[in-house]
Amino acid sequence: MERLAWLVPALTLAAWALILLLGKRLPGKGAPFGILAVGAGWVISLGILARVIGGGEAYHLRGEWAPFASGFSIPIGITVDGLAAVLLVVVTTISLLVQVYSVGYMRGDKRYVLFFANLSLFTSGMLIVVLADNLLFLLVGWEIMGICSYLLIGHWWEDQANARAAIKAFLVTRVGDIGFTLGIFVFFWAAKSFEIERIVAGVESGAISGRTVTLGAVLLFCGAIGKSGQFPLHVWLPDAMAGPTPVSALIHAATMVAAGVFLVARMFPVFEASGTAMNEIAVIASITMLIAALLALVQDDIKRVLAYSTVSQLAYMMAGLGVGGYEAGVFHLFTHAFFKALLFLAAGSLIHAVHSNNMSAMGGLARVMPWTFRTFTIGALALAGVFPLAGFWSKDEILTEAWNLGFGTPAEHVATSQGIAQIVFVTGIVTAFLTAVYVARMLWLTFGGAYRGAGEPHEPDGFMMLPLVLLAVGAAFAGLVGSPLVGENNFGAWIATPQLPAHGAVIVNWGVAVGATAVAALGIGLGWSLYRGGLPEREYLTRFPLLYKTLERKFFLDDLYEQGIVRPVVGALAPATYWFDQRVIDGAVNGTAIGTRQLARGLRHLQTGQAQWYAAALFVGVVGLAVVAVQVVGR
Amino acid sequence: MPLLYPLVFAAFLFSAGVYGVLARRNAVMVLMSVELMLNAVNVNLVAFSAYLKDQLLSGQVFALFVVAVAAAEVGIGLAIVLLIFRNRETVNIDEVDLLRW
Amino acid sequence: MTGQEVAFLALAVVGGFAGLLVVTSRNVVHAALWLVVALSSIAGVYLLLAAPFVAFVQVIIYVGAIVVLILFGIMLTRAPVGRRVLDNTLRARVGALVVGAGVFVMLTWFMAEAWGGKRIANQAATTTDALGLAIFRNYVLPFEAVSVLLLAALIGAIVLARRD
Fold first, then answer.
1. Which residues of chain C have pLDDT under 50?
2. Which of A102, A142, B12, C38 could join C18 in a cystine, given CB atoms 3.0 to 4.6 angstroms apart?
3. Domain of residue B33, residue span
4. Contact across the interface for A623 and C88, Cβ inside 8 Å
């Protein structure tokens, strides 16, 4: 089955091409083909996962894309190990459900065909990232996702705001990608290869110096900061909500933003080898999770709450990896994909019904939209980390790792410093509290109280409901694969690699578990008490005007970027470049044409039309040539 | 006789023909000058044939061919001149410059 | 100076002079008649170069047919007379003179360098059957080609010049 792994991205890529070229004439406007392709990929992925569960070696498939004469060649290849298998299942599952959902959500959209084409292209990009066995090929998939993100966020580009959001997303992640590319080059220079296996081997054997590893790891992480929306490059994610909700669910919740986390996990032995890099990851993650959770508290737009929540949860994953918890971080990625996608799709159902993104136009929807209510609640509680839903297990594992490293005895040596791990733990607990608060706020404002909007909201059609229900099942039970209730840490066994062996059974630190649950309960309680009556007269936090202002202006970061970077570039650098392009470059091209024309205008006077003139020229030429021939050449 | 004698004679006739082609305005006069040039070439051919004592008599044979071709050329040339004269009432080749820029 | 050379010089002077007058005469008909003189002297030169058949052909075809054709052409185009009508502008004439002189100088110079001291040996006149054999044995294909050419020229001239 793993031999078919290459088919998974290939099928979606083929679907993309097919839908793009022939979509308008295909039955169902191309959507069934996209669903078919990713569905087949899903089946293959499950097969691969089954094999991995049964215990199997990692499978490699390698080739040369472009051999050069000097012996260097650009490699292409895939690695199918446990980590890749798990991610394959996640990506194909979410992508399949989102595509089915989109059939209902995007019905009647004027760029329906293009939408599905872009979804397929994006999926193949993410699958390439998951399967790539060398950094260059990974970068290819990475960039494919970047452009698809741009295309999909700007799907309704007639509205200027959407177009701006798309550009913002693309450019901010580009900033991260610069660091990423430099990191790839550092490792290539150090290990003489792009292949991940060789780089990891080089790091582990000590062939690559510590300083190089730190430099490379920090640079690689820049890409993760951009793609996964960590501070300070998180500013694009909330604005990216301008795209259609299925896009938000697929790209900005479950898959693309998870690519950064995946990158760190894939290259984990490299990161582990550098204490500086690990500390950096942990610190940035801590900052991010806190500010994002705070910002989620003051949003009216339900998708923005979820966007900030995503940033915060991604930071959780990064924090888990940052304190050495390879399994914890990836496990949270796994569970988060389910409940965040669920939340987004359910939000889409709400938006569809109410025709507005804002929670101030919702309320009391629990009675009129029961299924949406139930699925949304499951997702929300999973997000808050309520036992026994998925989020509880993964969040708890991260907190346990942080606790062990910070306050207890870690299972093995981790490069992160103890103090940093303590910070991670504390911010983790605070963030869990804040998460519960904004989750409760969301629930009560949306479903409780009286309906504040206009019109008659109702449940969506089957295409949209089915994925919600299926994801709710996932959100509820996905956590069990990594919990001690079912077997012995199956999840850890799945994603283990030779360099990162499984840690055996999960040992639940009951103190941490109970503490986390208590904190979550506290948060939900606070939210209930504040918002159970629906939207308050004045948002509570406005009682602290300075704090509220700061939160409302997103810690003034957007303003900072706008003034410091965007203004100079758009105002000065871009016009200068434009002038140069128009005058100098185009001038040179046009100048050649104009010059040729002037030359022709002068030369055409030779065409007098008079035969004698031509004859004269002929004889002069003959005499000249004869002289040359005899005198010069003949000698 | 020295080979140069007929050669220089031919060169002189040829140059006179060149002058005539370039300096005359009347189309028929230009044709006459062209005939002069062709004859000069013939003299050259025959002179070399005699000098080389050619067994195949190539020079003389080619001179005959040149005569035939020249005859054909004059025929066609005069037909064209007649046509131009019919259309434009002039045989002044300065005025036949339709192919100018 | 052999008799042959003297004869040649005489013919050359006459022919050269006639040729010059062809291209500088102010009267078209005079120019045509001077052409006759030039062509005849060339026929004489052929005789001196042991090519009697070519000389006869020269007289018959050139003097006999082509000059008559030219005279017909002159007549049919209302032969104009006078320098202004017949010759180009002064500038053009000067240019033509330069080019013509240049051609002459170049030819003479190179020929003198190449065949400066060579002489044509005395030889028997070429018999007509020798010439005939040469044409119809060795050069029969060009001969056929020239025949087709003449046919084409004939038809072409008729088509061009007929009034319809």
1. none
2. C38
3. 4-95
4. no
